[in-house]
Amino acid sequence: MKYLSDDQRSKLMELSFKKQYLNVVEASVYTGFTPKYIYQLVNKGLIPHYKPTGRKLFFKIEDLDEWISTSKCKSVNEIYLDFENGSSNL
Known about the structure:
Layout: H1 6-16, E1 21-22, H2 24-31, H3 35-43, E2 59-60, H4 61-69, H5 76-84
Antiparallel strand pairs: 1-2
Helix pairs in contact: 1-2, 2-3
């Protein structure tokens, strides 16, 4: 797949953010992953997606945001504070 220029990428992002659902290329721009990696995540069932016709993939922006935010890695400071407070969420 041919890479997008910075100008093409910014235009695509502007258009994408006005939509509720993104296609694979738009989702790759939104997440920063390559389309190939997006397909790999779909095949492994690791990323939320929709297939209304059984072929074409769509991604809901709020699903992508939630998926990204659930993958947070704690900072050393947060781990230390959890330890200090006796939290078991390490």
